[in-house]
From TrEMBL:
Protein name: Phosphate-import permease protein PhnE
Membrane topology: Multi-pass membrane protein
Organism: Methylobacterium trifolii
Subcellular location: Cell membrane
Taxonomy of the source species: Bacteria, Pseudomonadati, Pseudomonadota, Alphaproteobacteria, Hyphomicrobiales
Primary site of residence: membrane
Positions of transmembrane segments: 60-85, 106-129, 149-167, 188-206, 313-334, 372-392, 440-459, 465-483
Gene giving rise to this polypeptide: phnE_1
Keywords per UniProt: Cell membrane, Membrane, Transmembrane, Transmembrane helix, Transport
Highest rank taxon of the organism: Bacteria
Length: 510
């Protein structure tokens, strides 16, 4: 299939398009504040957060959070490594991986709960499935970017497996390790969020603490979580991985959450997610097809289309808010702007921001502001601006400034931002698909995106409807990913690094 051909926009033109889209989205977005006194609620929240109650932290929730992340990321990264080898050559593998990563972990968990119940199996697979698709894509990119000089000196007749193991794998092993470590950080965030739907991780107790106003307990849980994220390089190492994996397996809950997993899986695949009109019917029967269309049409008009529209509105506003936030925040971590003393504090702030899951930020903001798109926009913008700002700060530190470079605002506006703008757009376009996926799941919190209809369908045990809606979110994410890649090619920024662990040009460490 020929590549998607688009007119070649400039940086300014693309920026204007996205800004105009966000302004248009603002006209139809629900941004009202429903809370009667949000400032009073915020003061109570901050008052509790500054007095953490560490004695109330449930120790096993911390253990389960780490265990689910270790096993889920390990399984996903292992599968992703195997899929990465044929990824570039097989359209089928690329399609499967795109589908796996297009469905958010929460949606995977909601589906898997119908088979495995509220169990460790659900939590581990909910992380492993999308992470397998993500890791396969990134590992394949790392392999493609690797130096091929070692392959040229192999003796004639060397097999493909031997060539990969001895000539290519040593060259990419460090990049694999760095990216997998970052993916483990993401897995910790995902595991935390899975607690909000009932799995026994720290998120379960965090949601309960926030809902009941026990902000001291919530603060303690958050600080423990940040400590786990901040210290992960100390306890997630090659030498400790076997111990972590074994300890995680031993620490899992004994129950699997379902009495007969095999029967539940067969029923799920052959009955629950099959559209109701096609159950026990001939799919070639015209009457059955007519009933299928009559069943599907109201789902399309009343749920898929309005949910997709609200998801796009939320994602577009959040993307532009992320852009503005990242441009404002990256000087906090850049040496030329924040100085020797301010830079560590700025980096710490952005690490904390990027380590806080968007879903949890949105949940807290909903408690303060009430149900609308505003808490979701704030959550997405804060989290993603922290990530992009952190990365731009690293790039800013790698810039070589001339001796007579200006200072202050002139240095920012005329020397730094213009030189970083291509990389800035590359990061935004890369995060676009991720922001869309997150926008969809915020429906579980009551925002009228596709996740709202998914959650309603699952709560009513209409799993066939839920499957259609989740498929719609996957197709949207795949479409945005394809458009993002096409725009990066059109802007000629598709070769710029977009992975958090990708080394900078000229940098000595990732």
């Amino acid at each position: 299939m020929s590549a998607l051909r688009l007119p070649r926009p400039g940086y300014a033109a693309l920026s204007r398009w996205f800004l105009a889209g966000a302004l248009a989205a603002l006209l139809v977005a629900d941004l009202h504040v429903a809370s009667l006194n949000p400032w009073a609620d915020l003061r109570r929240l901050l008052g509790g957060l500054v007095r953490p109650d560490f004695l109330s932290v449930e120790g096993w929730s911390v253990v389960y959070t780490v265990a689910f992340a270790v096993l889920g990321v390990g399984l996903g990264a292992g599968a992703g490594f195997l899929l990465a080898i044929p990824f570039a050559r097989s359209r089928t593998v690329r399609g499967v991986c795109a589908f796996l990563r297009a469905i958010h972990e929460l949606f995977w968990a909601l589906l898997l709960m119908q088979v495995f119940g509220l169990s460790a199996t659900t939590g581990i697979l909910a992380i492993a499935l999308p992470y397998a698709g993500i890791c396969a894509k990134v590992y394949s990119e790392i392999i493609d970017e690797a130096d091929l000089s070692a392959l040229r000196v192999l003796p004639a007749g060397t097999g493909a497996v031997s060539a990969f193991l001895y000539a290519r794998l040593p060259d990419v092993a460090a990049s694999f390790r760095h990216y997998t470590l970052y993916r483990f950080e993401c897995g910790m965030r995902s595991t935390l969020v899975l607690g909000f739907i009932g799995l026994p991780t720290m998120g379960f107790h965090l949601e309960s603490a926030f809902r009941q106003g026990r902000y001291g307990e919530a603060a303690a849980l958050l600080l423990v979580f940040y400590a786990l994220i901040g210290s992960r390089r100390l306890w997630v190492r090659g030498a400790t991985l076997p111990v972590l994996a074994l300890a995680s397996l031993l620490a899992l809950p004994e129950t699997v959450g379902a009495t007969d997993v095999g029967a539940s899986l067969v029923r799920f695949l052959t009955h629950d997610i099959v559209p109701a009109p096609l159950r026990n019917a001939d799919v070639l029967d015209l009457a059955a097809l007519a009933r299928l269309w009559a069943w599907f049409r109201p789902i399309l008009t009343d749920q898929v289309l309005p949910g997709a529209g609200q998801t796009l509105v939320l994602a577009q506003i959040a993307l532009v808010a992320t852009a503005i936030g990242a441009l404002a925040l990256f000087p906090l971590t850049a040496r030329r702007f924040s100085g020797r003393l301010g830079r560590p504090a700025g980096r710490l702030l952005l690490v904390v921001v990027r380590s806080t899951p968007e879903y949890m930020l949105a949940y807290v903001a909903l408690q303060l502001l009430g149900p609308s798109m505003l808490p979701a926009i704030l959550a997405l913008a804060i989290h993603n601006a922290g990530i992009v700002g952190f990365l731009l700060g690293r790039h800013a530190d790698d810039l070589a400034y001339r001796a007579d470079a200006p200072t202050g605002l002139n240095l920012y506006a005329y020397e730094t931002v213009p030189r970083l703008y291509g990389q800035f757009l590359a990061y935004l376009l890369y995060r676009w698909e991720i922001i869309l996926r997150e926008s969809a799941i915020f429906g579980i919190l009551g925002v009228a995106t596709l996740g709202f209809y998914v959650d309603a369908a699952i709560s009513e045990l209409r799993l066939d409807v839920a499957a259609v809606l989740i498929l719609a979110t996957a197709l949207m994410a795949i479409g945005i990913d394809a458009l993002s890649r096409a725009l990066r090619r059109a802007l000629r920024i598709d070769t710029l690094p977009t992975r958090l662990s990708a080394p900078l040009p000229g940098a000595t460490s990732p």
